[in-house]
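Dear support,

I submitted the protein below through the web form. The confirmation email said the job was done, but the results page showed an empty box. After a refresh the structure appeared. I'm attaching both so you can tell me whether what I see now is the final result or a partial one.
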Amino acid sequence: MTFRITRLLDGQTTVVKIDGRLEVEGLPELVVACGDPASAPILDLAGVRQADAAAVELLRRLAAAGARLAGCPPYLALRLGVPAAPDGHDA
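What the results page shows now:
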């Protein structure tokens, strides 16, 4: 397994923590973990070490649908066109 997804409930908010290399093979699992992006889950990306083009596109679509991106590492922020986390761990 190249990545790990941990789904947590923080009150009414779903936090989906992603660690490792996010690649096309694992994207269906990420979609299921996120649930309805309109419910504004938080995607904690601080642990993402690599993301392929399909993963970047999925993250863009999830954000456009309402998911919030947090902890975005600089390399991934550049690819997504979003601000990087100030310390690489928190958006």
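Response: this is the final, complete result; the empty box was a page-load delay. The chain has a mean pLDDT of 90.
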